[in-house]
Design brief:
InterPro entries: ICL/PEPM, Pyrv/PenolPyrv_kinase-like_dom, Pyrv_kinase-like_dom_sf. This protein has 284 residues and is of the alpha/beta class. It has helices at residues 4-13, 26-35, 44-50, 61-74, 90-102, 130-143, 164-176, 192-201, 219-225, 235-254, 267-273, 276-283, and strands at 18-22, 39-42, 79-82, 107-111, 150-155, 181-184, 207-209, 229-232. Helix 2 crosses helix 4 (61-74) and helix 5 runs parallel beside helix 6. The structure holds sulfopyruvate and magnesium ion.
Length: 284
């Protein structure tokens, strides 16, 4: 089978748009694979939320590496790991690349915000100096062992309200520095500014988007406009919060679990997902 890094690269470079999904743990990754998606995203927002922490750059590189490895090991899908700002300066980016690549993870994404970053949908966004950030991307690209290991550079210029010229300037700098793809993030309710970016970018590198605030963008239109990959970054986590709240509320109200039993995954389904039969085969 093709190594995961090569598979992620192929997803970015093929004509057909690829869809990857935020997976905060191994079980979520299994469900993403079962649903037929192309790959996985280890989201700093989801991994923080799963620890009941806000997405403010609180998790260390080692914590994100362990969590990302659990996600990565669960399936054959390639994983793009969200490595926030890269945990410091150039040498921290270098070690991040070394460690994530050694763990068999297909690629990493670094964003051009000042450490500690704030989740893109929170106020108060500070951008890193573009030359400094480009230097980190260049060092990270040099540090990888395999050319297939993907480094995505994410610019938050639009998120920070710095305008299209700044976004394009930064994206070109990061591509010059060796980024394999550009993630252009937006918090607008329509894809208008993403479309403007794509027209000016002229497919210089593959482009990745995170359509959380513009969820109605048609996938075929996004592909036509030049998007290579979309990330559904947080939907599995948000779905499970809603489902857990509903069920826990019902159980508390009813004084028992009888009323929810038919609406939740049977134990047998979890035995299947967790591979009981496969594991029992080892001792047969
Ligand atoms: C994440 O999922 O952690 C992301 C995307 O980085 S966002 O939450 O939009 O910043
Ligand atoms: Mg993140």
């Amino acid at each position: 089978m093709m190594p995961k890094a090569a598979r992620l690269r192929e997803l970015l470079e093929r004509k057909e748009i690829a869809r990857i999904v935020g997976s905060r743990d191994a079980l979520t990754a299994l469900l993403v694979e079962e649903a037929g998606f192309d790959g996985l995203w280890a989201s700093s927002f989801e991994l923080s939320a799963s620890r009941a922490l806000p997405d403010l750059g609180l998790l260390t590189m080692a914590e994100l590496l362990v969590a990302s490895s659990h996600v990565n090991e669960a399936t054959a899908l390639p994983l793009l790991a969200d490595c926030d700002t890269g945990f410091g300066g150039k040498i921290n980016v270098v070690r991040t690349v070394q460690q994530f690549e050694a763990a068999g993870i297909a690629g990493v994404c670094f964003e051009d915000k000042v450490f500690p970053k704030r989740n893109s949908f929170l106020a108060g966004q500070n951008l890193e100096d573009p030359q400094d950030f480009a230097g980190r991307i260049e060092a990270g690209a040099r540090a990888r062992r395999s050319e297939d290991f993907t480094i995505v550079a994410r610019t938050e210029a639009l998120i920070a309200g710095r305008g299209m010229d700044e976004a394009l300037h930064r994206a070109h700098l990061y591509a010059d520095a060796g980024a394999d793809a550009i993630l252009i993030h937006s918090k607008k309710p329509t894809p208008a500014e993403i479309l403007e970016f794509l027209r000016a970018w002229r497919a210089r590198t593959p482009v990745v988007v995170v359509p959380t605030t513009y969820p109605h963008w048609d996938l075929a239109e996004a592909q036509e406009a030049g998007v290579s990959m979309v990330i559904y970054a947080n939907h599995a986590l948000r779905a499970s919060v809603t489902a857990m709240r509903d069920v826990l509320g019902e159980i508390h109200l009813q004084g028992g679990t009888g009323g929810v039993e038919d609406g939740i995954a049977p134990m047998k389904e979890l035995f299947g997902l967790t591979g009981v039969a496969k594991w029992e085969g080892w001792s047969a």
